[in-house]
Design goal:
single chain, 247 residues, alpha/beta, Rossmann fold, five-stranded parallel β-sheet, 10 helices, binds S-adenosylmethionine
Length: 247
């Protein structure tokens, strides 16, 4: 059995099941649906809160490219790839999320290639994709370096990996530490692990990220404040009091 979680005492297989249960119970972004099928409201809120996603993903430059999206969630970005004319496959290990994403794409008139599978074990041959894209996913999987190795395996030589993972330290991490860690003797990492979305979430310094990305050339980092850092989205609104605002 694997044991890659940086926090001692957590078994990866058990943790992975908890992560899957978490996202099945609450598919990512479901809170932004005003009713079950209002995917436009979800997309509107998502891109208002994170306007940099389009440029980072490069949807507009992807026509004809073979793209894999790892961790599609409810499929907002996956649909953008389709609209842009990319030949895109998508995976997520939450079947509830994949179902919602499929429904979303079919409602928009597309035939999606979406599968339920684990980012640590991708069901694609080596050297398949021009782009592997993954937004806010790999830090939730117990063995993040293995997700990156898999992404690299399925990328063709010269292909591009575009991933968003959480930064250490972040304002969100500090807020969680103040709220849950400070008085209980938990580290910032442990506060993030225990309290940021699904169980076992990790955050990475640039040095740690660079080390996971060994073997890639031309590594570029971009650090942005997330809606969570800025207390703009629903879950982080619970921190909207004076002290946290100052932080
Ligand atoms: C925060 S959501 C992000 C979803 C989407 N990328 C977005 O930005 O809305 C995290 C997603 O990662 C998926 N996920 C976590 N670990 C995974 C794994 N090992 N394999 C596949 N999907 C995973 C979850 O099911 C969830 O849908």
């Amino acid at each position: 059995m694997a044991q890659a979680s940086p926090i001692r005492g957590f078994n990866d297989d058990v943790l992975k099941e908890s992560v899957r249960d978490f996202w099945n119970a609450d598919p990512c972004g479901a809170r932004y649906l005003q009713d079950g099928d209002d995917f436009e409201a979800h997309a509107r809120t998502r891109y208002e809160l994170e306007p940099y996603i389009h440029e980072f993903a490069g949807f507009a430059r992807s026509a004809g490219q073979r793209v894999l999206e790892v961790g599609v969630g409810m499929g907002a970005d996956y649909l953008e790839w389709l609209k842009a004319g990319a030949r895109v496959s998508g995976v997520d290990f939450s079947s509830a999320s994949v179902e919602r994403a499929k429904h979303r794409c079919e409602m928009a008139g597309y035939e999606p290639d979406l599968r339920v599978c684990d980012a640590e074990h991708l069901p694609f041959p080596d050297n398949t994709f021009d782009i592997v894209y993954s937004y806010g996913v790999m830090h939730h999987s117990p063995d993040t370096p293995q997700c990156i190795r898999e992404a690299r395996r399925v990328l063709r030589p010269g292909g591009a990996l575009r991933i968003m993972i959480y930064h250490h330290l972040s304002l969100t991490g500090l807020m969680l530490w103040l709220r849950y860690g400070f008085l209980r003797g938990k580290s910032v990492r442990r506060s993030v692990h225990d309290h940021l979305e699904s169980p076992g979430t990790k955050s990475y310094t640039r040095k740690e990220a660079r080390s996971m990305l060994q073997g890639f050339d031309q590594i570029k980092f971009q650090q942005v404040f997330s809606p969570g850092d800025l207390l703009l989205n629903e879950p982080s609104a619970r921190f909207q009091n004076f002290t946290y605002r100052i932080i």
